[in-house]
Amino acid sequence: MSAATNRTATAGNLSNNGNTTNQQDPASYFLALARQGSPPPEGLTGGADEEYEREDVPTELNTINSSGGFVVVSTDKLSVKYTNVNLHGHDVGAVQANKPAPVKRLVYYFEMYVKNAGARGQFAIGFTNETFKMRRQPGWEANTCGYHGDDGHLYHGHGKGQPFGPTFTTNDTVGAGINYGSQEFFFTKNGAIVGAVKKEITGALFPTVAVHSQNEEIEVNFGQKQFAFDIKASCSFFSSLPCFCWINLSVCMMTFEYERLERMKQHLRIDKTPLSPNASYKLVRSYLLHYGYEETLNSFELATKNTVPPISMSQENGSDVQDIMYALNQRRELRQLIRNGEIDAAINKIRQWFPQILEPDYLLQDDKSATCFLLHCQKFIELVRVGELEEAVNYGRMELAKFFELPGYNDLVQDCVALLAYEEPLQSAVGYLLEGTQRETVADTVNAMVLLTNPNVKDLQGCLQSYLERVVRQLTVCCLEKRSLSGNQGECFSLRRALNSNYNAKGS
Amino acid sequence: MGESKKMISSVEWEKKLNDVKIQKEDMNRLVMNFFVTEGYVEAAEKFQRESGTETGIDLGTIIDRMAVKKAVQCGNVEDAIVKVNDLNPEILDTNPQLFFHLQQQRLIELIRNGKTEEALEFAQEELAPRGEEDQGFLEELERTVSLLAFEDVANCPVGELLDISQRLKTASEVNAAILTSQSHEKEPKIPTLLKMLIWAQRELDQKAIYPRINDLSTAMLEESAV
Asked: Where do the CTLH domain residues begin and end (chain B) (predicted)?
């Protein structure tokens, strides 16, 4: 088959070293997957929370640019005291956080606790931009926003504020946050929402606190302690108006997660989208067919025929759909063997049924079969798992050594070999190789390669990924692209988060 | 018009697609969630065995729930009510609307079976008091009772109440209520993801031209016309 001419044959993009000699080997796609379990480099969280991974977050106060002379910042950089005697409007002791608020999330929030109201209780909490002059209250200058304790007003770019909420003083905890979903600033006092305003400031925003009369003292909390306002678990009920609205304080107080509620609002909007009723069923069926989950498929098909009304899952234009019933039974058996770690048995069956996928020059120009390689690695791992280290070493010398130093293969070989070095390999950085997910990846590789032996196959990509997976990828990329084209703020789609979230809250 | 849209080539788009990291186990969880929420117990069991994915819920609760749903779908509303209360008496207590709809369905079934006297008695004793509490219930009650006024019930203005779709609607409602009471989601995640995809593509259409998925069941990418 001419993989080269197929527009969807993008295996070349997928090998983990961008190696072009693996251009046409679909299994190189799985080579990259085989190392997906390995821990990411320092500083990245990786995996499903990718949008968090590259952003710094505020952790303490910035002592370098604070208005020196008026304030003293504690050694732990989490408290501020106004030591001066204030005389006018340009000797405010404002302090910013060390980093701007992260943007690639739905909500950012921080709090301030008032230890001492000092002479006049003229403190404030809010957000300011990079060029803010630290001698002014947040909110008094353009591109800043602040909620002030002495008058309970909100200042949003001028010296004249507007009535907003209660004043606050000693022992009060106030919070300030940014809701990227609705593009609003919101403020809280002692665990309850005070109100919100539309955010029109663009660019990096620094959490900012300020003190302005003698002996005022406040403490900040950037998340190192639990917040008084439980951003994750309590808020008042918001009416489900579209974005860009003032949050209405409803009389009805229910417990919801603030973030979750915001997502629920979006969810409600999306929920109204019309969808053809059997689309999900078709995707689930094709998923089972793709991966060879034969027993599940049979049970599912039977059950759907018996539902009231019966659900039809066949494709409308059967001729365009790939024949993924191909070798269903054999694929099921191979998956079972590999999932049980019976690699030798699996290899024997493959030799019997689909010898071509073990041949080095199948589909490729170069002389290595990635499928073979992954099976050998797994065999090696299984030997280590049961403690047969000597046999593992011999096996490694025989089958893995030739892949050493080869781009695309080398990383995995090294990780496998490293297993031998540890007494407790599971606790090591290469422990991921011993997890069930590794067997799963090998099973998926073999499955895909068998699908490719089908003489009727039309869509290369369809052998590597199920339609359901394609849907998830498309959704993720559309959200990422949409976000990057709209100021790059806000949350993005994450399958892991969608799986863990529950839009169903009691009382809804 | 609007500002010009960003053009994203197929090659560029494919690269973005391939950069997304997806874990197989998460995909399996999506499918398991579908079986469990839609109530396909045997499929869930088989899938657990074949893929090693946890069901995440006691399958016994699904069987109970499906029994209730089936009872309503077959018109055995009394049986369904008994089963729901066995499962969790609070469900009907805290869901007056659901309870009303179940009673309404009972009335419909009595009318369907020609038990006119029994139907009227039932309507007066059980449903009328509820109608007094709530205007919406009263209107529904009146609609249902009006079935008795017609010879050719199938073609009368409220004939749809006799349709199987009415049973399915009620069955769905009770299914959702049980799921909610078990702190489970009412709907599987896959349809939600599909809706999100439709919505996300529509939103992105305003700002960019890129390969779209237009047929959800094959998830094939199609180049957009410029």
From this structure: 61-118
Instruction: List A81's β-bridge partners, or say none.
Output: A72, A217
B17/A473 CB distance under 8 A: yes
Q: What is the mean pLDDT of residues A51-67?
A: 79
pLDDT (tens digit per residue) in A334-388: 999 999 999 999 999 999 999 988 877 555 445 577 888 999 999 999 999 999 9
Of A10, A275, A479, the CB nearest to B200: A479
d(CA A138, CA A141): 7
For chain A, say whether B195 makes contact (Cβ under 8 Å).
yes
Amino acid at A182: S
Other Cβ atoms closer than 10 A to A459: 16
How far off is chain A from B116, nearest CA to CA, in Å? 27
Q: What is the per-residue pLDDT for A86?
A: 80
d(CA B82, CA B95) in angstroms, rounded, equals: 15
User: Which of B50, B186, B193 lies closest to A498 in CB terms?
Assistant: B193
Are residues A321 and A282 in contact, defined by beta-carbon separation less than 8 angstroms? no
Chain A environment of B88 (Cβ under 8 Å): none
Spatial distance between the Cα atoms of A438 and B25, rounded to a whole number of angstroms: 11
pTM, two decimals, is 0.77
ipTM rounded to 2 decimals: 0.83
Six-digit token string for B146: 């009006």
> Cis omega (within 30 of 0) on the bond before A309?
yes
Shortest alpha-carbon distance between residue B37 and chain A (Å): 13
Of A48, A335, A477, the CB nearest to B16: A477
Query: Is residue A472 within 8 Å of residue B22, measured between CB atoms?
Result: yes
Report whether A99 contacts A58 (CB < 8 A): yes
Q: Would you say residue A264 has pLDDT above 80? A: no
Q: With beta carbons less than 8 A apart as the criterion, state whether A233 and A170 touch.
A: no
- Which residues of chain A have a CB within 8 Å of the CB of B17? 470, 473-474, 477
A295 and B50 in contact by Cβ < 8 A?
yes
Pairs of CB atoms within 8 A across A/B: 207
pLDDT at A41 (0 to 100): 65
